[in-house]
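Hi P.,

Sorry for the delay on this. The queue was packed all week, but I finally got your sequence through. Input first:
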Amino acid sequence: MTDTLFGTDGVRGKANAGNLRPDVVVRIAQAAGSLHPPSPGERHSVVIGKDTRLSCYMIENALAAGFASVGMDIVLTGPLPTPGVAMVTRSMRADLGVMISASHNPFDDNGIKLFGPDGRKVNGDVEQRIAALVASPDQITLADAGRVGRARRVEDAIGRYAEFVKASFPRELSLRGMRIVVDAANGAAYKVAESVLYELGADVIAINVSPNGRNINDTCGAVEPQALSEAVSTYRADIGLALDGDADRVMLVDEMGCVADGDQLLACIARRWSAADRLTGNGIAATVMSNFGLERWLGEQGLKLHRTQVGDRHVAECMLAKGLNLGGEQSGHVLCGDIATTGDGLIAGLQAIAAVIETGRPASEVLRLFEPVPQHLVAVQCRDRSIVQSEAVRTAVAEAERAISGKGRVLVRPSGTEPVVRVMVEGEAPALVESLMETLTDVIASEDRVTSKAA
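Then the structure:
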């Protein structure tokens, strides 16, 4: 379990199974709480938030029981975006923050994300210490009966977060006169997204804001922004924002109904901040998945792209190390480091909207700053993601890299949140890209069949 508990974004899996069975969740909470042992005259606390999945009720209670059993007090926020949990954790001076969410995954998945008292995701060393305790529960010390934790629910968490987001928008600007469609993916931002945009002055049309526990991310939100594109066209809106289930990522849609991904959003914000002498470190951080077109455009602006492993935690660590205040992922995680401690879909979207207002130009011009290099992405279903280290796969990757050297990029990596191996081939020659992709996916699928039979 110590090797498989944490992925690229906390604990992730099928709800009520594997690492997300209630008994395991209790141990995760006990292990995490054990890193903050009670001391005389001092109480430690944890903030627990969640998205709108049905299984969040079960996991929330299991976490609360686990934390209470090791002497931590619990603050329950109810449904709240991931960045809201990070903000409230820091605001309330809690020792730990927990978000129950599987982000963009289907409703029957769920996950646990952990934040430190600074509102940043805990690092790999902390995760390893927690995983070791989960695997050796006899090392966990339970609190005496008189020292067990108390749980309370705070009613103003959404309000606190809404004011925080609104304060990130330039005071001299207003959304008055703008018609904005927001797709909340039936997720954690189903209340707060519409409120923030309305209170900043916009004419808001909100879609997918009726969660029922099972419809989160269901053909909507940042992962499937087609519904937003159609709504923007139908309502003749100026711009649209599509959030994912926990609202830490965003996709934008311009007035023509065209989608702008995280790479275009990073370019938009980088240009705005650079022009205002606000961009620090003379560059931005982005993962290996970001399009080469972004890197080339940044270079033309005299800015550098610092590439990281996949995962917004790695982006955040790079930003701290390089003194950067902007970074993100093609998938829509955007970290505005001098505003928030983690990816925030609403804050990032508002920064782009500010650029639209300041330039006086339509979103279709402001949000399309570079032409992406053709990029083919495929997720290959695999029972054993470690096959990426097999000789056959490594040889295929090496041959593909040689074939496209100087003309593109190849990336093969196991997903940290799903049972798939992700393959990306990027290049200006479509025929070569397609050929290499076909070869790589065939080799991976073949290796998976071999290992499955052997098991």
